[in-house]
């Protein structure tokens, strides 16, 4: 006669099955959770670099369409661009920088960033010029800034009509300004503040704000923001001495270096040793030891050299 299973044996089998099943479930959920976390962090890192690329493009446009008399560098309180008509100003506060500059590509209006050359018939000829959205420019009616070939200001708001061109401005450069006034409508300022900071941001972080015709946060949870001048000797400087000749400083200036530390993801359960800026590469090393909480967050380091093509 065959003997069947006892109730105790069945309970033991069921218990073992539950234990094994729970183990598989825990393993599965842990793997899925880790993959989701890694994917989320990778996405946030990618977003940080996308926003950083926007900042780099803005910095590359410094001096675009700016007249000769404004091509000066000034450093001072508040990074004011009004004194001495500077094109670029930088100031520091608590190891973070503020930078202000002039660029005719700074507004969000259509055709911002478009420019051309006025021929002998007074017609604006556009040559491989693109607007801020990357679209190929065309010669359109509207207000233009007119500069001579030596970058002297001729007219800050010339109302161009393709059907009735003005030959008085022949052999000059034309930069689209649209409804914005020059220079006030083309002032750009990057700075840090903690207004409306996201809850998941680590203590001591900020929003990086861009102020132009409007003010908007570019990146949240920024721990450190530095901008260094790069001289023609490839050395890094915080300031340049003002000279009598407006071009004197700009001849010494080759580019900028952008340095940023940005948080990605929320607080972690275990601390780590955050990576810092590359030594001897212009960025002043950040002191993570001043706040132990910073070790519980993941940080992205951005170090980017930016050539200034529009100031010489």
From TrEMBL:
Name of the protein in its database record: Prepilin-type N-cleavage/methylation domain protein
Taxonomic source organism: Sulfurihydrogenibium azorense (strain DSM 15241 / OCM 825 / Az-Fu1)
Domain of life per record: Bacteria
Transmembrane segments: 7-28
Keyword terms, alphabetized: Membrane, Transmembrane, Transmembrane helix
